[in-house]
Amino acid sequence: MVENNKRYRNGINRRRMLQGLTAAGVIGAAGCLGSDSGGGNGYAAADTTDAESLNFIQVSDQNTSDRLALTMDSAYTITSDTQLFPLWLDVEDTGDSQVYVATLRDNLQWGGDYGQMTAEDWVYLIQEVHQGTDNWALSEAAGNWAGVTVEQTGELEFQIELERPNADWPFEPVLWGSYCLPKGLLEPYVDEQDGEGLDQDDEIQELAYTGNLGAYTFERWERGSEFTAVKNDDYYMTELDAEDFPDYVSEEEIEAWQTAPNFEEYTWHTMSEESPRMTALEQGEIDQTNVPSTRVERFEGQSDVEIMEVPYSYLTILAYNQRMNGWEELRTREVRQALSMAIDKVEITENILRGYAETAHTFQPHWSEWYDESEVTQFGEGDSYDPAGARDLLEANLSSDYGYDGDTLVGPDGEQVTLTLVYSRGTEATETTAEFMGEELSALGINIEFESVSFDQLIPNYVQNSWQGTEDEQPWTGGPNNDGPRDNSASSEDWDLMYGINFNTYPRTPAAIDAFWTERAPTNYYGYVPDEDLASMFETVRTSTDQAEREATMAEIFGILSEDQPVNFVSMSDDIIGYRSRVDGPKEEFGQSWNDRTWAFDEA
Amino acid sequence: MATYILRRVAWAVVASVIVLTLTFLLLYFTPDTQLAELQFQAAQAGDDPEAIGAAYESYHGYDQPIHVQYIEYMGNMLSLDWGWSETRSQPVTTAIAEAIPYSMMYAVPSVLISSVLGVAIGLYSATNQYTRGDYAATFFAFFGLSIPDFWFGIVLFVLFSGMLGWVPIIFDTTAATFSLENLAQFILPIVVLTLSSIASLMRYSRAEALEYVEAEFVKTAKAKGVGDWRVLTRHIFRPASVPIATILVGDLLGIILVSSYLIEVVFGIPGLGTLSFEAIMNQDTSLVMGTVLLPAFLTIIGNLAQDIAYTILDPRIEYGDS
User: Fold this and answer.
1) Helix (H) or strand (E) holding A501
2) Secretion signal: which residues (chain B) (predicted)?
3) CATH number for region B95-313
4) Which residues of B touch A138 (CB under 8 A)?
5) Dihedral of the alpha carbons of B136, B141, B144, B146, in degrees to the nearest 10
6) Contacts of A37 in chain B (CB under 8 A)
7) I want to staple B269 with a disulfide (CB 3.0 to 4.6 A). Which of A428, B117, B264, B300 is the partner?
8) Domain for residue A225, yes or no?
9) Could B89 and A269 be called an inter-chain contact, meaning their C-beta atoms sit closer than 8 Å?
10) CA angle A573-A424-A46, nearest 5°?
11) Optimal mutation site among A9, A26, A27, A493, interface B, most CBs of chain B within 10 A
């Protein structure tokens, strides 16, 4: 039998070798015919996730905005110097910061048969959709337009009257960056109050109505893979004269707008895996992508790739749970100060985040014009990083039944104090930072237990809280994230410290942060109760027309927050973006993409 | 046999209804994290989270009683209206229909290659037991079984794409199906998937064939002067093919469905695996349901086809019709 089996044997012979080489050759030959998408006059960018929709009424996330912005310019934008730059329209304060007038350009054309964009389109959209009954279209801007009176005052002009004066209104993301739809497209759905029908309309999903309103025209959207738009030769900006631009715009910039866009095609690729995305940037298959701080070193010394550190307005906090299911001592300001004093923020920003972040001490970046360093109290940087001082502060301010047994902080039950630090799972930097903070707090004699939770579970189980008494007893509610006074509302899962959530600090319109820092604020899930009447101070900032008073009040608020430490204001990470060096236009400044339609490839 | 087939089809329908009902109940009782995130975003913008919550529930019909939602859901399932994907802005059936061709482009070649080669090498290995060829095949099988698809995919990608530049980094959806460009972007996924599926088939075929290599009827056939090829194909492969068929449908389907998640994510292929993965990650409930139901139905149909196939492969199997 064994002898018979020899007939089936085959060794490695010349024929086998050739077969193997042929297989490898097929891969190679096929690869040689592959195209280099980033090599021509097409611009290719990549991010990790795709847009969810092209229906701007319901979705306003960054990915969707990035794609929509190619085909539609929006009402107006804000330059990196905080100047209002008119795109489709200009907006002016009539003098009292309560009534604003918007004036449309006269060369804006919808696609299809919808004709010219007029004030009627805007007023119809705002009144019937954003302010529609029961928010039938699920408009994400419904809250922005609540209580606002809009009225058409001319074919190309409409008036916006706010409930109360607000000098910052043009810089709030209400009309700024907003899009419009032709009345003719909306009407059938408004009549039927058919939100789903509107969302699923082909003209909405294929951006068929954008006409000459953007630098590019929609070409195709392969969900989960790529979004491509091609140059719009009818772009309205190219028809403008020099006098149509604001005075502060230079001749060079005017010319750039008049000849925009400079790319024949613009593609957004979706690449969820980090490694291929970085390789694509390195090899020139894409021109732009975000680079994690842990990957920046890879591009050092590469002349073809430029890494830009762009200031970002989001701040990462370590939240202290002052509600009934958090450590009760966290309600004492000095205890919170002590914990913040024991965590070295410089170590976090310089080593864990590799220098691509700045330390924070209040809810505003250092570079904001509203930031007044003289008002801010620091914790966790330089001399204010003081573990020994933190221990003294704790001993002096904890309840009498707490105390130190050697280096261990002991609670009323005679056991070491144990706090639960829950953090958002996902990035290496977040996990490392959470572990580092745990180690720092361990030096205070506190035992830290970690819980790693995905962000989508963090919100419903730890952030959202509910009133624990009867409905009759509930004095007020700030919504699902702040469902009543902290003594009687709690999240479904217990926690003491939480890390990994970033909040917008609104450096251009800082009064908007009242959504975080008053007792009844809708985002106050940590149960902060300020001693000062911050609500009144925010009201002053919102309604006053005296800029000096507004600045002084805002500085005072930031001072109080830094002193109170309702949360540990840990750091503000930069946006790290890698560009191919041939890309001419991006700058390392906040809001740098406001004029990205004028970017070009370096001819050299 | 007709009664048996009818009974099996009826059971497939019952199984489908059970799967659909369980899916509905799971979705109904699972907390809506999308709503929670929407309300959290609204709160940060200073808007009323409860108002947006109420609008969201009304918009999606979640404010209706459970039986109303269930009836509508089952009606939609029957009419193939599987809902609207919130994260892709298209009907779920369209999303699945668009994704299937991309998965087929590497799964079909992989299934064909692994089925033919896996069984062939398994038979070779069985009839050449303990020879160098058998050891080589065994090594190859264990290598394929042991090496993680995800890791192997990345290694091949880095080597052929990152270092050698032979295959494109970015998946091109505009490439013609039958073109060298498309072959270039699919060849690595085919290799990775084939390697993992060929290995188990090979080992299984070898084990099944070994049962018959020394069987009396094989020895008799050889004694009567039947040629090696005929012995292999008619006397060894034929009886071994029945148990092999069971893993062709079950294991192969499992390997392909599971591997497709990993392979498609690594190579950026917008197929069913990526679709399902993204749906789960983004909590797109309609799409999750669609991508869960599809393999469930495929499994039900696959098992049905497999049971029927037994009658063709082995006439001795009875179904109790008489």
Assistant:
1) strand A497-504
2) none
3) 1.10.3720.10
4) 55-56, 59
5) -110
6) 170, 172
7) B264
8) no
9) no
10) 55
11) A27
